[in-house]
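Worked Example 4.2. Consider the chain below.
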Amino acid sequence: MAAFASSISSILDHIIVSIPLFKPELALMIAFVCSIFCSLFIDRIWKQCSFAVTIIGLLLSLYFLFDQNSLFTGESGFFEMIKIDKLSILSRIILSLSTILIAVFIQQRFSNQIRPIGDLYAVLLTATLGLHLVTISSNWLLIFIAIETLSISSYVMVGYFSKTKFEAEAAMKYVLFGSICAAVMLYGLSLIYGFTGNLNFDSQQHIQGLIEAPKVMICIAFLFLLTGIGFKLSFAPFHVWSPDVYQGAPTPITAYLSTVPKIGALVLLSRLLASWTASPFFYSEFLISVIIIIAIATMLIGNLAALKQKDIKRMMAYSSIGHTGILLMVALVYIDNDPDVLLFYLAIYALMNIAVFLFIDQLEQGLESTTIESYKGLGKKYPVIFVSFSILLISLIGLPPTAGFIGKLLVFSKVFEQYQTLNEIPLLFLIIVGALTSVISLFFYFKIPLLAFLRDNDTAIALPKFNRFLVLIAVSISILVVLLGIYPSLLLDLLK
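Applying the procedure from the previous section yields the following structure tokens:
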């Protein structure tokens, strides 16, 4: 009995010591509870209460993250279930800043909706909490809970404003496909746990278990595991939900799905690859080969399919799939304790995608259409919007003098360095495909400035006034993208 009491005491002491490492997530939890309270009682009096609480919660979380960054020593807590390092801190800062932009986007976009949106902010906070846990955890049980927290929140956000049959169908596809992928991933995790007897993927016992496991079974377990991660990253062949969901969801939610969950999933995959490929055993070589094949297939499928799209949101869905291939390249070259290239590309990717969807949303509200053809002749009428829009598209292609060019240059350089070190031909082929698909993307991205500036519209279109605040944010981001393309050290120095 005394031994049991002593054990409980030591467990509680460890939990208490670990709590300071969890301050950013505690801020999100408190904000979540307060947001629900505001949605139930105060939003009737002050409509923006839930929004204000959400922003305060995210800012408070950011404050604790910056505090962790300034005092960073590299620690683990809650019995090594969470790991606080440079990557986890800076990636959560990018996640929180991106979520603040999305929250503002939602508030401005749905401010005139009859249906209350207070609940949506609570769901957004829940998704952010799930993403935070994904980025800091090395324990499979906690990771699966975090992924499911994020997934369920995403399902709710996609279906929250569904009015038409198409929108409801898109939400249903997302839920069904996500549920199947989660089940397959859970089965893969059960196999891995059975082989290793340990849930921490970076522990020595876990690695030793993988080395001793039957080769065929461990390969199957890895493929099952990649199913769940692939659903969040939407890489081939788990990308099929993206076009319908991107098109059917409200544009702010589409902006969220294309950006924020991918950051968390990529950080998880990068950690996983860094842990499992540190030693040249069979399973590490198999995993690298699978990721290279998936990256090549994803870039080709995404960019080639985007060429045929006539709807801008579907085009951006396939574009996002193509960019996932580049993100997988980033994960392959991630080196533990040196995440600068990974974080730089994630930050730029988030800025570019959110700003593009801000412009798409404003044009959608005015034109009541998301077809690319509807942009004909609008460049001369709204030059600031379409010049800024074109800059972001140039950055997505990866052309100078934009931050997208610097991001791709850093990624390709890292992959080439790895090729020179290992002399693995698939890595060289990966670079060639990446460069080739960037050229292919010229043809669908440039449709927009071509139609806007070089084609005339036969019908007179009178667009209502844009939301100046959202347009200002998008234009500011496009200027920032150019600035970071000319002076990338401004961001790289912050990530050191």
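The first strand starts at residue 75 and ends at 77. Residues 165-196 form the longest helix (32 residues). Compare this with Example 4.1 before moving on.
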